[in-house]
Amino acid sequence: MSALREPALLGEGAHIALVSPSGPLGGPHELEHAIESATSLGWRVSVGQHALARDGYFAGSDADRAQDLVAAMLDDDIDAIWCLRGGYGAMRLLPQVQDALDRTRGRVRPQALIGYSDITALHAAWQRAGLVSYHGPTARASLTAFTRAAFVSAVQEATPGVTPLVAPHTTCMVSGLATGKLAGGNLALVAALCGTPWAMDFRGAIVILEDIDEATYRIDRMLTQLRLAGAFDGCAGLAFGQFTNCLDTTSDGSRSLALVLQDVAEALHVPALRGIPVGHIEDQWTLPFGARATLDADAGTLAVHRVGPTSP
């Protein structure tokens, strides 16, 4: 995996586009909250035309969502795209997103992408284009002190060098150290992208996975699918985040989620950790996907290596 280009830090006056590429917002109050969060960080804000649209479980039609996202991507004055929420729908826009990324390949300042959950599909497109993106809170979220500090550290204050992140409540599944590029995201999306041009390349990567509202057997099935597809071949390490509202056992109580994750870690024979603060939780890290990091499974740490923005 060759080095990916990092976006510029989002300092005072950075221009941020707020868009809804996936599910709909709960109402204008969520958009107002997102605008307040962005302006509190010193950013200028532009809002996608269809940010408050609703079409069933989508934030407007595919055409409307793609229009807002692509318009932001093609605007040279936009420094970052902060997704308003997850849900479902981003992967339906991948052909249009890929076209826009191809058209902006020579841009001196690559745009930052921020979000998680369903935004995993867009992270895959960014990394396919050779760009670092931020796996972090969506714009509608209320930022706790922990989450805000991690967010600011990643997107505003990061300096070239190594930033150690310590996860206090983790379980070492396979001992050891691993260094590689950060990749992954929401397990359901990573599995759904298998067989598409945006399937994730985990060779030499530290794989980060999380999910929400999934039964144990479904998590088992998705992880097995990835293993059988060869998605994990050549990965350097594995770090499971939070599996929020996921039933801890199968219906008969015979197989725990912890055992399912442990089986995968041992089968891959790479340093592996469970329980980092990534996923559908209030206190979460912001991780620059595509940047290099060192995982210490025994110490429960992830040290992120930043090199700063690079020229095309």
UniProtKB/TrEMBL annotation:
Species, as recorded: Gemmatimonas aurantiaca (strain DSM 14586 / JCM 11422 / NBRC 100505 / T-27)
Top-level EC class as recorded in UniProt: hydrolase
Keywords for the protein's UniProt record, in alphabetical order: Carboxypeptidase, Hydrolase, Protease, Serine protease
Catalytic residues in the record: S117 (nucleophile), E210 (charge relay system), H280 (charge relay system)
Entry-linked Gene3D superfamilies: Class I glutamine amidotransferase-like, LD-carboxypeptidase A C-terminal domain-like
InterPro entries (UniProt xref): Carboxypeptidase_A_C_sf (IPR027461), Class_I_gatase-like (IPR029062), LdcA_N (IPR027478), Peptidase_S66_N (IPR040449), Peptidase_S66C (IPR040921), S66_fam (IPR003507)
Gene Ontology biological-process entries: proteolysis
Protein family: Belongs to the peptidase S66 family.
Domain LD-carboxypeptidase N-terminal: 16-136
CDD domains: Peptidase_S66 (cd07025)
Protein name according to UniProt: Muramoyltetrapeptide carboxypeptidase
GO molecular function terms noted in the UniProt entry: muramoyltetrapeptide carboxypeptidase activity; serine-type peptidase activity
LD-carboxypeptidase C-terminal domain segment(s): 179-295
EC number: 3.4.17.13
